[in-house]
Records
---
Amino acid sequence: MAELVPLRTAIEQLVRDGDVVALEGFTHLIPHAAGHEVIRQRRRDLTLVRMTPDVVYDQLVGMGCARKLVFSWGGNPGVGSLHRVRDAVEHDWPRPLELEEHSHAGMAAAYAAGAANLPFGVVRGYRDTDLASQTNVERITCPFTGEQLAAVPAHRPDAGIVHAQQADRRGNVQLWGITGVQKEVVLASKRSIVTVEEVVDELEPRPGAVVLPHWVIDAVSHVPGGAHPSYALGYYDRDNEFYVRWAEISRERDIFAQWMEENVLRESVLA
Amino acid sequence: MAELVPLRTAIEQLVRDGDVVALEGFTHLIPHAAGHEVIRQRRRDLTLVRMTPDVVYDQLVGMGCARKLVFSWGGNPGVGSLHRVRDAVEHDWPRPLELEEHSHAGMAAAYAAGAANLPFGVVRGYRDTDLASQTNVERITCPFTGEQLAAVPAHRPDAGIVHAQQADRRGNVQLWGITGVQKEVVLASKRSIVTVEEVVDELEPRPGAVVLPHWVIDAVSHVPGGAHPSYALGYYDRDNEFYVRWAEISRERDIFAQWMEENVLRESVLA
Amino acid sequence: MSELMAVSAARRLQDGEVCFVGIGLPSLAANLARATHAPNCVLIYESGTIGAKPTELPLSIGDGELAVTADAVVSVPEMFAYWLQGERIDIGFLGAAQIDRHGNLNSTVIGDYDHPKVRLPGGGGAPEIATSVRDVFVMLKQSRRSFVERLDFKTSVGERVRVVVTDLGVLEPDGDGELRLTHVHPGVEPEEVRAATAWDLSIAEDLAVTEAPSEAELGALRSLRTKGAPG
Amino acid sequence: MSELMAVSAARRLQDGEVCFVGIGLPSLAANLARATHAPNCVLIYESGTIGAKPTELPLSIGDGELAVTADAVVSVPEMFAYWLQGERIDIGFLGAAQIDRHGNLNSTVIGDYDHPKVRLPGGGGAPEIATSVRDVFVMLKQSRRSFVERLDFKTSVGERVRVVVTDLGVLEPDGDGELRLTHVHPGVEPEEVRAATAWDLSIAEDLAVTEAPSEAELGALRSLRTKGAPG
């Protein structure tokens, strides 16, 4: 049953040290503000799950929140590498980062299986690649045709966090544009948080929108700008400059640490 | 690549004797007119697939078009039995009808698997019931947890037929209201036909709508009223009177045959 | 008597519960609860409508009004995978042609499966509703033909059946999961209910009499029914 | 040279083909085709947009304009299950850090997987694009570091690779599935291409020279690029 609570409260109550946490957003509506709150609350030993980890995951990893990353494509979209993730993988700084790497198809099927309360998803994939031997998949045989397929274990995060455009006062949520895997993440997770641009009296149905009823969400937090610097269709465009700048900020450990101190750790919680 | 063709042409070219055919519509937007055209063209030995076979399947079975029915709930919704289906099952009239019976969950998973080009779908179902031993499912073991689940073979109909509200002139289709399994049927089928209420210049995006691009459809036919007596949201409501009357029409073989002669076989093809 | 069945079932719904409803009595009961003590009950119809708020009782789960008034409409595969199998539903309503003492149900055939005396509509959503919702409510009229010693076919299992509302009274499982009579409707004798049951029906020590419908319930029921509800 | 790469790839798209495109060169090539000889090409971005018609080249597949101009937007699980795995896509574009003579690609690591010299972004959609689309188009710059004898990691298989467009020329598989040089770009010598390839590159007997971009292509390219395209 969704309660409208400040973001600080939502993260305090629903994200715990050692949790498996998915902050999702397929290159759109990325819950940056929620990630920053996780950093401010100094969560540790998280297993971070995401199809497309980008800047906010680079920040979480660089600040030492994570012990493991489960993903399918990690980069700064249109710019290049995630320097903090690379530093963790290549040089164990600030701590070693274990990787569990999938294809997009495998990650998507794992979320869908989690949402459907199944222990695994099935894809015709991972075939003849080196990925199969490095990751957590198993062969499964079709009992009707004998075909060999890949089974991926379902994602069932302890906490799932997404950003949406709107909630109503009861906590029903609507998001639109590129809706990615957000429905699946909320339904697959044991606990869920949605940050929203706006709280409205009534959700007006929109083409292509995903509506999540309040009774499948644990907390809704009103955080205008909560996806910045990523997109929130209808509210703001991507801050492309920032993505380019991030390459410079994140390259050196000192500059990164100072930037985080000034821009994330000291930031007052507005919502 | 969808072509806009008369319904007669679409059925002539795309539905063949012996085919596995799904005319779907989950109690809404049921493609009655297309079913009547199949009857007029005297197709034989069809395997008919549908979650909720109702009046139009009663007609197809009673006219001897089908040798097998794959389904999960067969009845006249809100009224009672399908007398023609019962006569075929209980007394082999006009010919024996083989049944392959599933649960709704199994049928839905089978269509989704077909759309996803997988040979089977997985459900936590059919457990401890007598259905499991009568139908076509197999146990499958989760390679991660050891849990036993049910595998259902994918539906891959030879022909899938649905009704929608609108198409544009290129054959892109939009349907809304209760959209059921229609997307899955079109994507799972080798050949597909969509009948539509209206052909418009431009599809206007609508909340909750399903859009099927023209390049996944083989034929679009303009058949106003093509779902009558079922619902077509935005165009007409269900003809409840007819559903009640059908119980009377269908109870006796003679009355049924006469009604079909007068109302279906002699009907000129308008579209 | 179907009025009293609807009232008895409706009273057992808590406000805010998420209910998977079919057409007929379950839809009547759930909408009655919404119109009286449980305005925040969430109605889900298996056709894909989540949070439907019909002003008239639908004759079919395909009624467009269910979609138009819903909080969200999802595809049928999603409904069964994410919402039902996902165990997000509190209450599921089932009917049947036969029930046994453990709440197992038959809605498939009377007689032998391959050569049935009566071919019934089949399970539909019932097999998975019975194992995926928190509590199953069963509603059916009571007779020796329907309350049987042995089912002709087991369509769904009874392990989550919490209450069986009939035209004579209410049955609930005891500690061993065997249904026993816990309420009789006004004017019904326990022996009458036993006579309408093919197994040796136990009667609860604290057997109660169903409270007659209140003015509010009757008023709500009437306004729901006059809009074209079946049976 | 990336202009010529985009032009070479765009020319190989037939009107009406359904293309799975990523950001950067593939998006440039597919939109160039749409703007010139193949106006009915269908652009699908893996973020879920089907039939996107961007007026400006997006910097990210998350760009809202892709959703706003699309014929349909679907969820990411549906995109990968029904549309990609469903084998509805004609052409898929891939890039990589390394390619071998059979068109197998590496976009995962340079060096050992557990102790990599360079940790690359990873496969993303590539492993299944490579086995689900009809024809794979690869676009990458050619050097001995990228055109290798042996991949450090096999991210995707080459069996459906039909063409590799580089900054020096075009490679296509011969009858045995080994890539050979079929085109050089204007001013490029075959030996230059061989020198930029770590394996012993075969050269087609009918080696051709890429036709220089036409006025129409250059115009379309410029109008696409001036709107903010990368690289």
Note: DSSP finds nine helices and 13 strands in chain A.
---
Amino acid sequence: MQVSGRFLPWVAGLAALCLVVGLIWGFFLTPDDYRQGATVKIIFLHVPSALVAINGWMVMLVASLIWLIRRHHVSALVAKAAAPVGITMTVIALMTGAIWGQPMWGTWWAWDPRLTSFLILFMFYLGYIALWQAIEDPDTAADLTSVLCMVGSVFAILSRYAVLFWNQGLHQGASLSMDKQQHMSDTYWYPLVLCMAGFMLLFLALVLLRTRTEVRRRRLQALILRERMA
Amino acid sequence: MELRVSDLSCARGGLIVLQGVSLTLRAGQARVLRGPNGSGKTTLLRTLAGLQPPVAGRIDAGADAITYASHLDGLKATLTVRENLQFWARVHDRPVGDALLRMNLDGLADRPAQALSAGQKRRLGLARLLVTGRPIWLLDEPTVSLDAASVALFAAVVRQHLADGGAALIATHIDLGLDAEVLEMAPIAARDILPQGGFDEAFL
Amino acid sequence: MELRVSDLSCARGGLIVLQGVSLTLRAGQARVLRGPNGSGKTTLLRTLAGLQPPVAGRIDAGADAITYASHLDGLKATLTVRENLQFWARVHDRPVGDALLRMNLDGLADRPAQALSAGQKRRLGLARLLVTGRPIWLLDEPTVSLDAASVALFAAVVRQHLADGGAALIATHIDLGLDAEVLEMAPIAARDILPQGGFDEAFL
Amino acid sequence: MMPELGKYAGAVLGAYGLSLLLIAGLVGLSVWQAVRMHARLRDVEERGKE
Amino acid sequence: MIALLLRDLRLSVRSGGGFGLGLAFFLLVTILVPLGVGPESALHARIAAGILWIGALLACLLSLDRIFALDHEDGSLDLLVTAPMPLEGIVAVKALAHWLVTGLPLTLAAPLLGVLLNLPVHGYPWLFVSLLVGTPALSVIGTFGAALIVGLKRGGLLLSLLVLPLYVPTLIYGAEAAQRGADGLPALVPLALLAAISAGSAALLPFASAQALRINLR
Amino acid sequence: MIALLLRDLRLSVRSGGGFGLGLAFFLLVTILVPLGVGPESALHARIAAGILWIGALLACLLSLDRIFALDHEDGSLDLLVTAPMPLEGIVAVKALAHWLVTGLPLTLAAPLLGVLLNLPVHGYPWLFVSLLVGTPALSVIGTFGAALIVGLKRGGLLLSLLVLPLYVPTLIYGAEAAQRGADGLPALVPLALLAAISAGSAALLPFASAQALRINLR
Ligand code: HEM
Ligand SMILES: Nc1ncnc2c1ncn2[C@@H]1O[C@H](COP(=O)(O)OP(=O)(O)OP(=O)(O)O)[C@@H](O)[C@H]1O
Ligand SMILES: Nc1ncnc2c1ncn2[C@@H]1O[C@H](COP(=O)(O)OP(=O)(O)OP(=O)(O)O)[C@@H](O)[C@H]1O
Ligand SMILES: [Mg+2]
Ligand SMILES: [Mg+2]
């Protein structure tokens, strides 16, 4: 608690800074693309949120594993706290993608592999959150959601391949950091990196904050139970 | 064949309900659990039966020695009385034997369980104990809904089980007429309330 | 306010179970139904409550005079104790009053019903009787799962209800300590076991 | 100040608007929950001390 | 009556069985269809209105058995029947509660899901209106089916079997209205017929349901 | 073990919840689709394989909550868990029983229903084989989902939500195999992948299910 309490303002501040600078830079100071026009500006929201959405699930997976193996309570709560953040990011990526798709591909939605697997990720998040909410006992809920998270991860990977097999799509290929030169000019690249950092930090800050809330909630419950029995 | 419990704590709904339960039950012995509603009898029996993990303490009994009869009877409404019993017998890999006769159910053997009255259902639930062949019986208010004659019948069954070297731990509000020590719930009621090592404790 | 039953026959599962039941229950009176398991107590009470039609005979009671407490309690697991009771109070358009207090549930008022022990659930089920405001109570083994103290508490509640001009018909295997006549089931058990009128009879 | 967005103004502004709205909503919700939980916990803890 | 409505709403919010899950099922059906039939969006556009109606119907159907089954299992249905309320009223309130937690959210969500199936633009208002007008019929008819099977152990699928034929006219007019709307054809006639079905069943079926319930409970 | 299998089969025959109703639901979905999307048979032929797979999947899905819920409600699950059988075995037997009363009849019926949807002739063997190979995966995955939600009041729709994303790979390969078969294209690759998924989940998931059940029952 203390450690997270000390870190939180810094992380949050840094996140805000990166986001504000990155987004303002991206929004106001980048030129239009010769092919896509002004719509490239959406990239500064779309790509970072997609990134965070995927990594959010990874965080949940790791936290679940730690809980199952080491029975470390806080890590179960981290997983619980990360899910709503992850699903919001998924929704942002889906929505910005859809809005982008309308001018670019002439349709809001297409059953492209990447889009489809993202939709499936959204469903996994939804099921995971629903399961957390449906179970009363916190220990049981933590255990069951961890099991779901692990099995779900395996199936998420399976679906990824299934979807790729099923349709070769419209969407941009992966062009992350390694070979950036070939795909993207620096004008877009720097603010994009900034935005990615901003989204990551925002994710971190929100997870910290929400974990703290969850910890307090558990403590509150414990205290109330004790009072009731006394 | 012996049930040995030492310094057991049990929790329910995140709260410790019982603490420091120690008891030994030898072949041929019965023990009656007595305590007011909500004092934790069901919790104790479920813990001993292995249906919920103890918060602390040890439970020693041989492998597959315990069987538990809860508030629910585990009957399938569409199976007949005989089929219900046969299923449990086959699960435990033993013959049905005279269990129907001993619980006075032979006249109802071919009725589906849904057409039994409350007391008849309960008798069928108790007949299951006979076909499991397990020595230690944990009984949670076994006589609920039973009339006086059936209570006597059941008490005789328990007595026979003890005579055959079995043991029984019985939570009940009425007197079964068994020669059994009483285990009061009051002294083992929890003093501290929160589970150790559980979720909550970490946050206090 | 009077329950008058004359020459009633009741059927269960297509067979006539009871025949020639006649009884009169006046304000302030209680009657205990006694009979072995499967003798038809539940069947009789359900018929009187209007939940199944009689095969023959008449049942006279004022409109909306009867309330019935069955083996089941009609509780919603996710509602709290108070919400459960409030719902029935609003359905009957009456205040909750001190029902919680009288059934010793006030300490549990904000617990969801699923977190109650067997006896506590039963107490909540019985508290419903108090908020219906109906004069004639039909009770089917009301004391199942209750400990001795709660049985006494409930007996007092029934006694108060009688003193207030109510009436009660109670099926039970144990002695409630009420000043009530006993109605034995044996004499009213069906003599000729015939299918109830209707479909089957046409083929006899 | 406002950059020229051309015919895609709706799309770009919509994307930014919706995303910022969602982020703000999430942040607001998290902060609100945190504050409320903190307050409730303090209440109960103080009640416990008395 | 209002107490009953409030209780039912509260129960479905508490048990998490209300809005959320009906919607989720709707979403899932909408997602499954492209996965099953393949990724061509021209094909999707042609079947979108029909599939969305079928999805809403199924989501509705699956929540029907909760209407009475839960109350029956724990004994409160017996108690409700002997309470001082007309049985017809109870049945109508139950249907209303069901619509509020199922039909209404489905209607609101349908246009969003239309995007996934590439529904043509003019289709949206018609889809929305046809669902708004049609889902009450689904709830009322479903309540009748639920009343018929009360007390049967897990009558869930039997219920589907009984109710689906009754749903056919609603589905046909509803999907037709939405489809015509999507194709830019006049769609007022099927919509009017749909409204007539809804109004008729809301007015008459509660009596049949109450009767079925009476028979079932004895 | 065999006793348990026999009991489960007998129960589902007795309660009428087994074959009959799963099949009926499958039939109804197949009938609803033409009603919803309109009467053109060329359109039907194109979506037939996908819709049949989706119908089978939904029929399967709807019967999942019976796997453990009934046994939990009447207390026999507690008793089974303490019986001298490994929990993994119990779970596997339950999945097998579910497949025998749901997946197998669906597989046998699918070619018949193909006629209703105007499935192209070469499609029949592929549809049949893909269902035969794929439905076991549906039962096993579904058993896992059912184990997760045991004990939750009416987890039915929550169950759908949890299980459907897990069904996605099976559905895609299954429908793709059937569809390619129907179009006269080579379909062995998706079929092999489908078989791999079935085998993999049958081998591994029972352990996860048993674990979930253990957690749920304590
Ligand atoms: C609803 C629709 C969409 C969804 C769900 C979606 C999802 C994703 C995902 C998951 C990524 C991957 C991020 C990563 O690999 O780290 C991504 C990246 C990207 N998306 Fe989309 N997308 C959508 C629509 C679009 C549209 C319409 C465009 C533009 C025409 C677009 C352009 C991009 C670009 C340029 C990247 C970065 C590729 C890279 O550098 O890795 N997306 N999107
Ligand atoms: N799910 C739950 N959550 C919180 N508390 C619970 C829960 N279930 C039971 N309790 C509480 O735990 C205590 C012990 O309950 P238990 O069922 O063991 O009592 P019991 O001795 O069997 O009572 P009875 O004689 O009424 O059956 C009770 O005070 C009860 O209110
Ligand atoms: N659905 C049914 N079909 C056929 N017979 C039934 C059915 N339900 C009950 N019976 C029979 O009807 C008779 C009367 O049952 P009832 O439940 O009224 O008995 P009861 O007096 O309440 O018994 P208990 O004390 O065990 O509750 C019993 O012999 C029972 O076996
Ligand atoms: Mg108990
Ligand atoms: Mg009875």
Note: The pocket of adenosine-5'-triphosphate (ligand 2) is lined by residues B 12-13, 17, 35, 37-43; C 114-120, 145 (CB under 6 Å).
